[in-house]
Amino acid sequence: MVVALLVVPLALAACGGTEAEEAAQEPAVTEQVQGTDTVRVTLTAEAARRLGIQTAPARRDASGAARTVIPYAAVLYDPSGQTWTYTSPKPFVFERQDIVVERVVGDAAVLSKGPPPGTAVVTVGATEIWGVEYGGIEED
User: Fold this and answer.
1) pTM for the whole structure
2) Do residues 133 and 86 make contact, with C-beta atoms less than 8 angstroms apart?
3) Which of 8, 12, 73, 131 lies at a C-alpha separation of 20 to 30 Å from 106?
């Protein structure tokens, strides 16, 4: 009887979980990247699937110039005409990066400033990530 009185409260306490465990269950988490004004958005795999997130690698300009080429679908414009893209440094993690579009050729944007070749950029779902960054995400 005494053992049961000791074990039951401990078992019930274990069911509660910590804040870190509860935060890990959130579909999206934002955090400030230390020392920058960049916000990192981390999605769960399920949230990324629901939002339809797709990425493609940035590549080096074929002309040999020191420019990066990304799919034009990865280019976003703010109301003042500034351009940016979301990069994905690791799966389900996204960071907004300013870019400078030198020219658009078909479905590709040639950049004079942007992520290095090989960096994953978001081609589908960037506006949804932006919504998470600035307004949060709500589950139905």
Assistant:
1) 0.76
2) no
3) 131
